[in-house]
Amino acid sequence: MAENNLGNLFHYDKKVTLSEVAPLGLQHVMAAFVGILTPGIMIAKVCNLSAEDTTLVIQTALIFSGLATLLQIFPLFRKFGARLPMMMGASFAFVPILLSIGADFGIAAIFGSQLVGSIMVIFIGLMIKKIRILFPPIVTGTVILSIGFSLFPTAIKYMAGGAGNPDFGSLKNWSVALITFAVVFCFNYFSRGILQLSSILIGVVAGYILSFILGMVNFEPVKEAAFIQMIRPMHFGFDFQIVPIMTLLIMFMVDAVQTIGKFTATTVGAMDREPSDSELSGAIMGSGLANFIGSFFGAIPVGTFGQNVGLVISTKAINKFILAFASAILLVAGFIPKVASLLTTIPFAVIGGATISVFATIAMTGLKTIIQEELTPENSGIVGISLAFGIGVVLSKNCLAGFPGWVTTIFGSSEVILTTIMAIILNLLLNHLKKHLKEGRKSRFYNSKGEKSMGT
Question: Where are the transmembrane segments (predicted)?
């Protein structure tokens, strides 16, 4: 395939062949798959679900990740979905709160709270034009930068073998991870055309083969998995309780801000423009609709996937059929557990080695967005103070021990949440309130013609 035939991959609507989109679509699946599966597994364990119900949670996570992605690239009624290249998946951002709700109130309370929260998200999407003033580039850039920073530990833990792995930090895990990274690095920076665009997939394949040779791949889950299994509506039911609902409402509000940040990162980094109001509205409303329907089927909340944002930015491949292909794989894996179980055999070390450079791309996109603004003392303060609080609190374990447990759950578990809230507040104080006060003082000393008032 000639390199000059690949140009359509960099246009959203152009026609492409299956052979062109398949490698890039597989890359997106590889980057997202572990992240999609892990939250459901963790929640199933804390809720003491049976093996059958655990499988059902994993299935719904895969299916609704695929459906939510299709909704973003092919909007429903031109309202629900952004028509932008974004991979959606079971969101890690919700995991700490969902674990707390599941342990204290049960899994039905999770889906009852999700049902209420998703309705609020749709209303936020409807009002985005009125509230977008809260999210100028200095704020979204800071949020994107914090997203990149928050993903760095994830990549490193994966490279070391995955937290909780008995071999965590072993030389074998690091060898596989670093060789995988080296393959990705070489193809990304020293090749061209389809080889460069497929660098993540090539790295994963190379790392997987090495892992198999070293005896790190276990095919037992594939043997035990069923061939076909359908999901069931209302299997887990709903339980509406005020504390879980209020807690998850806050998280949905913060996730809406993260959605704005990640869609902004995608358009700025891969399309050289800011997203429109209608695109952001559709993005948030699409996410809300997917979570609303998902709550009936036992699908934990879906959100934007930062690692896939990095893939889109690093490759600039924004064609909608790439993510449509990835969504099809997720849907097939959701209904055919044997496919899903095969993808789970990829060792964490391989995933970490393949994605760490992607996470770095996200952080650099945030930095690029920030420096496009004038770095006034006010803007520097917004970025620096927001990151100081967001990252500092998360790194300082038990620093919120004197507060109620929900405070730690919401603000102490993710760098992104507190960074986002601080950036919004500081921007309002320094770039809006301060400017308003300064103009008010000036008007006291000058008349409407700009002449100095008498008696000053």
Answer: 24-44, 56-74, 80-99, 106-128, 134-152, 173-191, 197-219, 321-340, 346-367, 379-396, 416-433
Query: Which of these, 302, 355, 310, lies nearest to 330 by C-alpha position?
Result: 302
Structure tokens at 54: 């655990």
Pairing of strands 302-304, 88-90: antiparallel
Q: Name residue 303's beta-bridge partners.
A: 89
Closest CA to 421 of 444, 454, 393, 448: 393
Nearest to 274 by CA among 154, 138, 406, 158: 138
CA dist 187 and 183 (Å) reads: 6
> How does DSSP assign 5-61, residue by residue?
GGGGGGSSS----HHHHHHHHHHHHHHHHHHHHHHHHHHHHHTT--HHHHHHHHHHH
Hey, what are 2's tokens? 């000639």
Q: How confident is the model at residue 133 (pLDDT cuts 50, 70, 90)?
A: confident
Rounded to an integer, what distance in angstroms lies between the CA atom of residue 158 and that of residue 360? 15
Helix or strand or coil: residue 211? helix
Distance in angstroms (rounded) separating the CA atoms of residues 201 and 311: 11
From 9, 87, 21, 153, select the one nearest 307 (Cα to Cα).
87
pLDDT digits (tens, 9 = 90+) for 301-354: 998 876 688 788 888 889 999 999 999 999 988 888 777 677 677 888 988 888
